[in-house]
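Table S2 (text version). Query chain:
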Amino acid sequence: MRQINTQHTFHIPVMGIGFTIDTPVKVAHLGISSVISLVDDTLVEKMRKFYCEKMKLSYEPITEKQEDHRAKRITEYLNLVDVLVTEKFTAMKRSFEEKSDELQKYIDSFPNFSEIKKRFNEFIQRNTIKEDLRQWLDEHLHPGSIDVNIMTKLDKENYRNNEKLPTEYNDAHAALRGYANSNLCSSIVFSAGMNPRLYGSIEKYDDFYPDERGFIKKKIILKVSDYRSAIIQGKFLAKKGLWVSEYRIESGLNCGGHAFASDGYLLGPILEEFKTHRQDLINTTHELFTAALKTKNRAVPVSPLPVKISAQGGVGTAEEHEFLLQQYGLDTIGWGSPFLLVPETTNVDTHTLDLLCKAKEEDLYLSGISPLGVPFNSLRGNTKDIEKQNNIDKGRPGSSCPRKHVELNTEFGEKAICISSREYQFKKIKQLDTMNLSPEEYKKRYDAITDKSCICVGLGTAALLVNGIETKKEGPGVSVCPGPNIAYFTRTATLQEMMNHIYGRLSLVCEETRPNMFIKELKLYVDYLKSQLAETAQPFSEKQLKYFETFRQNLDEGIAYYKTLFGDFEKKLAVLKEDILGELEKIRLQLHACTAVAA
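Corresponding structure-token output:
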């Protein structure tokens, strides 16, 4: 068991299902925290077998016939990752004894202002005795956190012998149990909103509660889109004696994966609200937290436990990274999509890697392919889309649904099925055939049905391809979900190069053509609003008018906030271009022009 101490000012968020499935094995020994997806236990089991064979460790398969196999697979894989990281970290610390430069590379990777870097350099100037250095390293260096992610909405019910299993065997519940039973001392990231039933089940596991010292072995991170969501979820968990150790704020549209437009709330104003009310959030949840702990006769911290605030989505330069840390008092910044171009850290197959390097702004778009019904960032030309179109052309649209993790639709019976599946799309098209629609309307609805893609397989397949693991059941198609920011990175990079980019020692983007992250997000929101207006049949209902007006008003307020912010900092920070205020006014005029139709 080890306490994690964050030393870098960035983390690598979860990406897809397989892109970061083993990222901690590759980067945690360097002090970098990253996040593993717990969606696909079959992929997890395949990766466990792969690493056991690679490291010549014994491997006993956990089959689907075993009771609670999903949780058991996750526990065993996470324990293996923990062992591998510990071994690599120990070897790195001891490398100085073999005259290797690995330790120095590790220290050099930190930003110049890093306290650990400063202390190390001071120490080695004063001490030459190996035993002293060994002791100092053991006391001060820590690996990055091996964090995990559960998407709360992916809580499919499961069956055995055609009988529905209890709720504790639902997908998200089983994944939680798999993590809770592991040896990890890290954090679990809950994303996609609140799942009260899932959150309630956390209470059963002792590792999520503080001990007498206030130490929590397994911490909770909430990925949130705004302050309101944070305080609602934070209070809900606090009333159960569960502390949220980090609120991870993500841009609604300027990020990878699923995109939540959040009624036009922009990242800058959201971060400002967290900055203003951070202590209120801590005080409010602490009061509820301690009262619940007393009721449960558990150890009660005397003062509020630490709370981190982090952000991610669209960050692309060292100036933006530093600006967010300083302006909003953030603890760490998530760098996601750029790491898809770092083969040392993520699993991206050769074809997809080439597409990502060549991607322009127009190649990255919000698609309707997700079976969750939420807009999904996609990249044109990905092999999963090609595979999907081939099936449509053969008259067999839909997926065979090998994983079944998104079986959430009960339109055709009590037992849910996935709307990306061949079974669902066959039934839906058959239903469509009876509706006597015009050719134009029929095609529109047909395309909407068949557009859905099997992303719970597609987002994991790259990990199999990269590591030479067979894909007979999955097929070779890869879905990829980068954020729009990837358009400004044009080549692969080493891990060292990407860290140098983040800390301002190297630039991997053309900053003359890349827009400021806040301006890019604002443009994405205006474009999103335009598309919603165009796609909504007129006349608008009262509810639709209210939605459009709220969206426009929130964007207007965001623009006003940025004008004030950028006006104050325009001459001080390289992160802001000279014409940024003019760009804001131009976007404001576009916004009002596009929403005039809704008036």
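Notes on Table S2: The chain has a mean pLDDT of 93. Residues 267-295 form the longest helix (29 residues).
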